[in-house]
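Why run this: before we spend reagent on co-expression, it is cheaper to look at a predicted model of the complex and decide which construct boundaries make sense. The entries below are exactly what would go into the expression plan.
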Amino acid sequence: MKDIVPELKIEQIKKLALDGERLDGRSLDQFREFTIEKDIIGTAEGSARLKLGGTEVLVGVKIGLGKPYSNKPDHGMLATSVELKSIAHHTFEPFQATTKAKAIEISRVVDRGIRESGMIDLEKLCMEPGKKVWMANLDIMVLDFDGNIFDASTLGALAALKDIIVPASNFDLGEDFQLPLGEMPVSTTFVKIGDHIMLDPTATEEAVADARLTVTTDTLGNLRAMQKGLSGVLYYEDVTKAIKDSISIGNMIRETVRGN
Amino acid sequence: MKDIVPELKIEQIKKLALDGERLDGRSLDQFREFTIEKDIIGTAEGSARLKLGGTEVLVGVKIGLGKPYSNKPDHGMLATSVELKSIAHHTFEPFQATTKAKAIEISRVVDRGIRESGMIDLEKLCMEPGKKVWMANLDIMVLDFDGNIFDASTLGALAALKDIIVPASNFDLGEDFQLPLGEMPVSTTFVKIGDHIMLDPTATEEAVADARLTVTTDTLGNLRAMQKGLSGVLYYEDVTKAIKDSISIGNMIRETVRGN
Amino acid sequence: MKDIVPELKIEQIKKLALDGERLDGRSLDQFREFTIEKDIIGTAEGSARLKLGGTEVLVGVKIGLGKPYSNKPDHGMLATSVELKSIAHHTFEPFQATTKAKAIEISRVVDRGIRESGMIDLEKLCMEPGKKVWMANLDIMVLDFDGNIFDASTLGALAALKDIIVPASNFDLGEDFQLPLGEMPVSTTFVKIGDHIMLDPTATEEAVADARLTVTTDTLGNLRAMQKGLSGVLYYEDVTKAIKDSISIGNMIRETVRGN
Amino acid sequence: MKLVKEKLIDGDGKRRDGRTFDMLRPIKIDAGPLKNADGSAYIEWGNNKIMVGVYGPRELQQKHLQEPDRAIVQVQYTMASFSVEDRKKPGQGRRENEISKILSEALEGVIISDQYPRTAINVFIEVLEAGAGTRCAGLTAASVALADAGIPMRGLVASCAAGKIDGQVVLDLDKLEDNIGDADLPVGIIPTTGEIVLLQMDGHLSDLEFEKAFGLARDACMKIHELQREALSRKYFNEGESPKEDEPDGEVTS
Amino acid sequence: MKLVKEKLIDGDGKRRDGRTFDMLRPIKIDAGPLKNADGSAYIEWGNNKIMVGVYGPRELQQKHLQEPDRAIVQVQYTMASFSVEDRKKPGQGRRENEISKILSEALEGVIISDQYPRTAINVFIEVLEAGAGTRCAGLTAASVALADAGIPMRGLVASCAAGKIDGQVVLDLDKLEDNIGDADLPVGIIPTTGEIVLLQMDGHLSDLEFEKAFGLARDACMKIHELQREALSRKYFNEGESPKEDEPDGEVTS
Amino acid sequence: MKLVKEKLIDGDGKRRDGRTFDMLRPIKIDAGPLKNADGSAYIEWGNNKIMVGVYGPRELQQKHLQEPDRAIVQVQYTMASFSVEDRKKPGQGRRENEISKILSEALEGVIISDQYPRTAINVFIEVLEAGAGTRCAGLTAASVALADAGIPMRGLVASCAAGKIDGQVVLDLDKLEDNIGDADLPVGIIPTTGEIVLLQMDGHLSDLEFEKAFGLARDACMKIHELQREALSRKYFNEGESPKEDEPDGEVTS
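The model came back. C-alpha cells follow.
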C-alpha cells in the first residue's frame, strides 16, 4: 500500500517554502539551536552529548595504542563509527542492510570532514614509526532522531575531541599531553525539496527530500568534504549556493562550539 | 493458533503435584538417576558422557596455552561453551536467536558455578604472568534433551575435569601434571509450576514452568552461584527452600560423582 | 509449482544423445573451445581470463608472505577461492547457503587438483621453516556462467599460475624468481543424464543432470583428484570410462594451455 | 600488573567512598528524556550512566516469535564501546546476551501483556558508562521507561545488588568492590508485593550471609522504588521531590 | 617440527596397527541410541566416534528450498571442537561445508523421497572424535539412522575408503596413513546394486591402482553392510550377530 | 617506509604520465560483453578495469524493500581481492558499502522506474583492477550496461573526477596523484541536462578551485558521454567511432 501521508506533507512543505517558511517556523537557511554537554563519560578520554533540535547524539572518544596503517606508518590513527541505535527512532534497525548502509555513509562523511581538515594532528601521534601510534576511537551513538545526523555527529565530535588528554603515562610512554588539534571543520547539511534548498533538515523534511548535500568547511572558508545523497538531482547553482551558505553559517557555528 | 496441549499438561502436572507426584513417578524433590562414562574421547585431555534421565551431554576438555586476561595476568583460563545441537531436540536451532540465547545463559551459569567455586585452581596454571598460561576449553554438547541441561552440564563438566593430565611435556614446559582441582560444586535446578517447586525438571515440566532457579553449592554447603530464569516470579520462601534442598541433595550427588 | 520445462528439456537431451548428439551440436565427449588472455591485471602477480563456451572466469593470483600451517612448517601455502558472482547468472546469490556451498565445493576440488598434482612446488616456497613462507592466493571469479565451472576454473588457474614472478625483492628477501611449477593437472567434468555421459556440460545440461564426475589427471595419465556430485548414482563402468576419456582429452587440453 | 587485594572496609566500618555497609550510591532518575521513544528514562547510579528507551507494543516482525495471547518483551542491553576502561568491541557479547535475556524475563513477568497479542514491547538499555551494577540500574530505569510509555504493569520493579567484601555483607558494590569482592547478589523485586523477578548470585555466600544480603537488597529496593515514583511524578505532575499521597503505591496500570 | 616420512608397512606386509593391506579397522554400530531423534545411530570405527541423528520428513521452514515433488535431504556434518588434536574453532568450516553437501547428495539419491513433497529430512552427523575416514563412517552410520527413522530407501549405503601408502594400495587408512600417505579414495555404494553414491579421490593413483583400490573399498562395503544390518536387527529383532535369513537384503522400505 | 612527497607536475605543466592538467586517461568502453546479464559493459580507464552487469527489472525477493510505485536500484560495487596492491580481504568493506549506496542513489534518479513497480534493478560493478577513480568509471560503465539492458533512462550518466595536485586543479587523478594529492572531487552528471547525480569531495579546495575543478569534470563528462554512445552504437548499429547523427542525444528510452 502506498503511503499517502508523505505526499501531503511534501505539498505542505513546498507551499510554506514558497514564502520562505518551514513546518517548525524556521527560515530555509536557519540552523536549529544546539546544546553541548562535555566530559560526561568517565571511562572515555573525551565525550560530549549534543542536542540539535530533537536530535541527540552521544559521542565518546577512547585513546589507545595501535599499529599504524602500512601506508601511513608515521601517523596516528582515527577510527570513526556512527551507530543508528534502535532507541533513537522506530525505523532504525541496526542489523538491517539499509540502516547499516546509512550509518556507514554518515560515519565516513563525518570521518572525512575531520580527517581532511587536519583537525587532529595525526603526525604528532606517532610513537614509533610503523610500529606503535596513538589511536583515537571516535564512537557516535544516536539516541534520539529528528533529522540531520551528519551535522549533529560532526558537532558532537568536535566537542568531544576538544581538550582531550592523551593518557601516555598509563602506558609508561612519558607524560600525558593534550591531543594536538588543528582546524575545526564544521559541516552543514542541506536538502532539496522540489525547488527549495533547506538547511539542517528535520526528520520529516529528510523523509520527503529529493536530494541532500553535506558541505564541510574550515576556518578559512575552504571546502574540506562534500557529499551528495538521495536519488534526486542537484544543479550547479544549488551546489554553489550551498557552499556559500556553508561558509558563513559554519563560522557562526564554530564560534558557538568554541564557546563551550 | 494457540496451542492447547500445554494448558492441559499444566493442569495434569499441578493435580499430580498436589499429592507430591510427577508425571514420571518421581517425588517433587527427587533427582533423576544419572550415569557417567569417562575418558571416551582420545583427542581431548578430559571427557565424559553424562546421561540424566533422557538428557545426554557429551563434555570434552582441551588443554592448551594462551595469553592471560589482562585483569588476571597470573591466572590460567577457563572457557566454557554449551551447544544445544539440533540433534538433541526438534526445537533446537543453533542459528536462531532464541536457541543461541538459551545456550549462552546455560554456559555462563555453568561457568560461574565452576569458576566461583574454585573447582579449577587457576592460579596454579600460570606459566609466565601476563604472557603464557594454561587454558582449559570446556565444551559441552547436548545430544539428547529431556530437560535440565543446567545440572547435566555441570555434572558432566565435573566428571570430565576430574583426573585430567596437563600435557606440559608436549609443549616442552616440564613434566605433565594433574590438573589442580579444589572444590566440587554441584548445581541443582528447580522449576516452579503454579505453587509447586520441582527439582530436576523434564522437558515437559520445563515447557510449562513459570520460573526456574538454579542453585550451585559447594562441599561446605555454601552458595557459589544462583540464577533465576523464566518470566514467572519467585517468593523469598521459594528461594530459601531451594537453597536448603540444594545443599542436602548436592551432597548426595557429589558422592555419586566422586565414586565414578 | 513444479517447473515443467526441465522435464521437456531432459527428453530432448536424451533423444539427441541416443544419436550421440547434443543441443549445441557437440558430440558427447567433446570439450568446448576455450580462449585464454593472460596477465591482464596489473595488481596481481598472475592473472588470466578464460572463456570456455559461454562460461567466463577471471583468475588472479597474489603472492605474499605468511606463517606456514603447523603441520606443514616447511611448505609454502596455497589458498584457493571460487566466487559465484551474481553478475554471472541470475541464480547465483553469494549470500545464500546453496550458492555458497557450490562455490566451496568447486574451490576445494580445484584446490585439490592443483595441490595434489604438485603443480606448485610448495617446498621451494619456504623462507624460514615454521615462521615465514610464500603464500599464493588464487582467487577465481565467475563472471558469466554457461556450465562447467570446475574445468574452467582449473584451466584459468593453470594459465594464471604460469610465468609468475615471485616479488621477493619487494620484501627485501633476495632476488625475484619464477614461481616453481611442476605437473600441469587438467580436470575434465562429465555429467550423466539418463544413461548418457557427457563431457564439459553446459548450464542447461547441468540443470537436468543426474550425476556429475570431475576427474583430474596429470601428464603421465595418473589420477590426481576426483569428485562425484549430485544425487544421481554412477556405475563402476561410468567411472572407468570417464577416467579413460579424461586422460586422453586432458592431454589435448594441456597442449593448448601450454601454447598460450 | 598484579592485583594486590586492597582493604575495602576500614576500621570504622567505612567503605572507600565513605559509605557504611547498608548505603546505596547516589541515584538520580529522569523520566521521559527522549522524544521519539514511546517511553524513556535516564539513570545515574554511582558512576553508571544508562539511557533506556521503550517502543511498543508494536507489531512483531518475526512472525515465528509472536505469541497469540500476549505481547512479548524484548530487552536489548548494550554497552557503549566507551563505557568501560578497555574499549569494548562492537557487537553483542555473551555477557550482554545473557543480561538481555534475564531482563526480558524479569520484565515479562511484570507487564500485563495479554491486552496486546502478537506484539512486542522493545526495551533498549544503553549503558553509556558502566560502574558495577548496570543490570540492576538498567532494570530500575527500564521500569520507569515502561511506566512512561503507559504500559500496564503489576508494579514497578526496583533492583539492587548486595554482596560481600572483606568477608562482610554489604549493599550495592562499586566497581573495585565488585572486581575484588567475594560475592555479588543482584536482586530485582516488585517492592509492593515482594515478588522476585531477578535473582543471580556468584561468589561465595553461606546461607546466613545470603539471608542478610537479600534483606539489604530488599530494603534498598524500597528506597529505589520511592526514587522511581518521584521521577515519574516530576514528569507527570510537575511535582518536586515527593509523589502524591493518594496515588496507588507503585501501581502503574492504564 | 619436521615430519619425517615414516615407514607405514613393514617387511611382512603389516601396517603399524598389525593390519594387512585389505583389513578394516574395528567397527561397532549401535542403532537407535537417541531418544528424541526420529532415528539415530552411533558408530565407532577405529578411533572415529560419531553420533548421527535424523529428524523428518518434516515441514521445511525455508519455503524457497522446498521441492514440490519430493523431500530434500539436508546433511549437517559437524566436528566437535575437541574431536581433533588442535582444537577446532566453533562454526562450520569449509571442509565441513563440502562434506555436508556431498553426503546430502549421496543420501538424496538413495532415499525414496517422492512420498514426502515439500519436506526436509535432516541428518545430523556429529563427529565426536575424528581419526581419518569420518565421512565414510558418518555416511555408514547415517544410513542406519535413516533406516531406524523408518525412512524408505532403495538400499543401505555402506561407505569405506581405500588409499595408497608406501606405494601400495591398502584399505581404510588410519590417521597417520592418511596424513603422510600417497592417495585417499572414499567410496560410498549401495552394496546390493553396485550403485556409487559417493566418490572422491585425492593424491596420486594410476588407473590400475584405482581399479585395485576401488575393488578393495567395494569388497569392504559388503562387510560393512552386514554390520549395518546386524545393528538394525539387534534393535528391531533383539537378535544377536546375524539378521534373519529371509529378510530382504538391505532393503529398508516402509 | 616513509612517503616522500614527489613532484607530480613538472616545469612544463606535464604530469608524470605526460598529461596536461585537463586531460583524461585513456578510456575504452565495450557494451554487452556478458551473455547472461540482461545488460553489461566493460570499461578500461587508465589502469582501472571494471565489468558491470545488470539484471532486471525483476521481482524483488525482500518484500519489505519493495516500492509500490517504482523499481528500486541496487548497485553492488565490489573490489576483487586481487584488484589492489595489498590483497583485499573477502567480504564487503565499509568503503564498498558507501560507494554502493551513493551509486544506487545516483542511478535511481536517472532511471525511469515507475513502469516497474515492486521490482529491483540490480547493477553489479566488479572492479577487477583499481587504479583511482573506480567509482566514476563504474558509474560510467553502469550507465552503458543499463542502456544495453534496455532500461529507460532520462539520459546517460557520465562521471569523472577532478582534483588538486601540487596546488593545481587537474582532471582525472591517477593512483599516485590520488594518494598524495590535495583534493579529489568525483562528479557524475547527465551531460545533456547538467543534472548532478553524484558529487563528493575530500581534501582541500577553495571555492574558486571548486569552480575550476567542477568545470573540468563537467567538460570531461561531455567527452565520456561520446565514448558511451559510441560503445552502444558499435554494439547496436555495428558502426565505427561515431553514432548516428539523428539519434536523440544520449536518450535511451525503450
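The longest strand of chain E covers residues 48-59. DSSP finds four helices and nine strands in chain E. Bring this page to Monday's planning discussion.
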